[in-house]
Amino acid sequence: MPNRLPLICPIKDRLRPADVSGQIPLHTLQHKQALGLKLHRRNSTKEQLRTLRLIKQLPRAIIIGVRKGGTRALLEMLSLHPAVVKASQEVHFFDNDKNYACGVDWYLKKMPFSFPHQISIEKSPAYFITEEVPERIFKMNPSIKLLLIVREPTTRTVSDYTQVLEGKEHKNKTYNKFEELVIDNNTCEVNTKYKAVRTSIYTKYLEHWLKFFPTEQFHIVDGDRLITDPLPELKLVEQFLNLPSRISQYNLYFNATRGFFCLRFNFMFSKCLAGSKGRIHPDVNPSIKEKLQRFFHPFNQKFYQITGRTFNWP
């Protein structure tokens, strides 16, 4: 049983409701965090950082995937909350053997500076599909909160293909058409050897994670809804993380030019996701799309059953 695994870094204080009573105003938090990062880059002394009460903490919640499900959007939107700080880059600690061999101290150094009452969150989509990751995370903290954001599987598969296609085109390399990759030429059935297809079979990976963590430690985020109506999804995550309700409609505004929601931190600072987000998908043969939807359907039904959350997927 997983509870017999030795902990490499026991966490005594589990994810308690973040203490934001009498918290510092958000704009002051942002200023101090920016100042703390600047001091860190200048090899500042521990005394200088201690003056700001800034520390580094292991994450008490991780966005484990799924690739092209909306992990970056979710992380950026959660950072609107004054009790949440995010790692700016994908750390790839648990899925990269070389990084993992560096130890948990290396991982901690990759975390952002934060105030003691805040929680750190990182995201690395490859975690969800990498076999060694659940056990490694369990050894660090068996009661960690796990966020999994998913999209309708066929849409996610096309999005995955689109990102790879764009990368090939930038390098002036050719790439097969989507239909040629998702269908096995010999059997005329869905090609499960194609990684983009396998990644969309969410139950295949979730069942492995459930060998280490109970369903109560997972929260499933609707990536499609996060695009069209993000606030309800963010409120659910706030509840899951035991955070007080702080993110409001004021923090989210629709940018008609970009076609998705952008973030408003305060009256002085707002940001949109990188231009690479929201790529236009290639046209897919309708019969191929229907074939994929039929293929994913039984896996989707099992996913609903396991997670207790139902989506309006074909």
From TrEMBL:
Membrane topology: Single-pass type II membrane protein
MF-aspect GO terms: [heparan sulfate]-glucosamine 3-sulfotransferase activity
Major location category of this protein: Golgi
Top-level division of the source organism's lineage: Eukaryota
Family matches, as Pfam families: Sulfotransfer_1
Keywords associated with the record: Disulfide bond, Glycoprotein, Golgi apparatus, Membrane, Signal-anchor, Transferase, Transmembrane, Transmembrane helix
Enzyme class at the top of the EC tree: transferase
Alphabetized InterPro entries for the sequence: NST/OST, P-loop_NTPase, Sulfotransferase_dom
Disulfide bonds: 262-272
Coiled coil: none
UniProt protein name: Sulfotransferase
Residues forming the catalytic site: 68 (for sulfotransferase activity)
Residue positions binding 3'-phosphoadenylyl sulfate: 68-72, 151, 159, 277-281
Family: Belongs to the sulfotransferase 1 family.
Catalytic reaction annotation: alpha-D-glucosaminyl-[heparan sulfate](n) + 3'-phosphoadenylyl sulfate = 3-sulfo-alpha-D-glucosaminyl-[heparan sulfate](n) + adenosine 3',5'-bisphosphate + H(+)
Biological source species: Cyprinus carpio (Common carp)
